[in-house]
Amino acid sequence: MRKFLTKVLTLSLCTTIVFGCVACGGGKESASDSGTSTQKVKIVVPDLITGKKGLNAWELQRQEEFKKAYPNIEVEYKSNPTTDPAKNIQAMITNLSNQEMAYTLLKANSNTYARTVYQSKLTCDVSKYMTAEQIAEYDSSVLSGYYDGNALVGLPFRQEFPLLGFNRKHLQSEYVKTQLGIDPAAADANEQVEAKIDAIETWDDFLEIAKKLSGTYAVSGKNVTVSGYGGYLTDYYIGLGVWNVANGYNTVTQHESGKMDIDMTNTQTVETLEFLQKLKNEGALTHNTNLGYTDFFNQIFQNKIASFIYYPTWATSWFEPNGIFASDVKVINIPYGPSIAALKEKAKTDSTVKVPSTNVNFSLSYVLNSRATEEQKQAAITYVMFMHGEEAVHDKIEFAKENMVSMLTVPPYPFDDTYLSDTLFANVPSDWKKSLTASIKDYYVFNQNSDAFIQYIATAVPGIVNGKDGSGTYNTRESLLNRLTSLNGTIYSQFLNGYNSNFD
Questions:
Q1: What pLDDT is recorded for position 425?
Q2: Is the pTM of this model over 0.85?
Q3: What are the chain's domains?
């Protein structure tokens, strides 16, 4: 990876000049053209700021700088249509289809979401409004997930790396310490618990801990019935998908031709579903697996769930307002499954064996409304590059370091190891730094064709994990395979056959 820029830039008009120079050439209208034009243009963008503290202070300051640098561009900030990822796609479609309320830019929760709205012709190719130099700033592996054919369907502004989080309020309870064989009265009892969490490597390791985190016991002075692990199984990106990658496989394969295949019956996926079943059957996952987004997170905030898939950016956006602070969450990288364990064992004696990454990379992006005017589209890209371009992000990171603010978001640019440890993660807790650094060094980029079949899979998962749904009982590998074969066929007939025909 090339080294991330290390020079410090001030929040001034000189930054704008730098962006203007970067944008020159290539034969395209540059990102600076909208700023130097005398023509007034208005754009509508999502308001992603929740408060005035920490890095939000930098964002607000940057917005003011944009006003000064581009007086001809009026920016209207509107609240996001929804904060619920499960409703995000429909909210985006509704907004983009309604000219009166439409945003110029909208936030897509993943490259899958970005592809979905692009394939509906609601958004357009952002590369048409960028120079080659601007595109080259991005980490190519992150950007790769945003291409649909030759079209760049979204522009990422941050990376997300899901980790496995543990609520320290549970880890520090007398009940859990006793369950883990630790004397609650020991002076180093908390450190002993943390060491046991750090020692988790495999799914079996985690299962044993999750079972001991389950039960009815006092958390923060109140008795609560606790699920050791919280499985939000109706969301692919928090449920099956994350654990499947941790076992060395993604159900979806995209070929160079553009076509996509899905295989729900492969060994890795079967093992993943059996593991989720085991969490349920052995008492580590005791809550309703069909919980919706809001209800699931309320269970966490009410201390009813001890461990969960955790995105670090949730710390300040959702968890802190509900009484769970960053210091309350212990994090580790997601444990690996049996297929990865087998490969690791082979690799000890065979250097040709390659062990795939078990860390998942998601990213959030801006998508560009296809119904906006050409002037609005160009102005919107000017805005994104000013607020989230490589130079701006560097300044933001320096602000975080100087003001002792935790930088929980990872920008979509390459970093060297020194920058990772000394600057980007300078003020995050040590366990967070360790896990995030491991993730950013080695990760798998999700690359799904659309939201529809991903959500279809996720809808079926709770019934499979519970061992029974409307289609039958799945308590044996044979019955599970039969169900997955049926699911595979439905996905092809309803979603993929039509999509793949576009590449014939």
A1: 79
A2: no
A3: 13-159+364-428 (3.40.190.10), 163-354+445-503 (3.40.190.10)
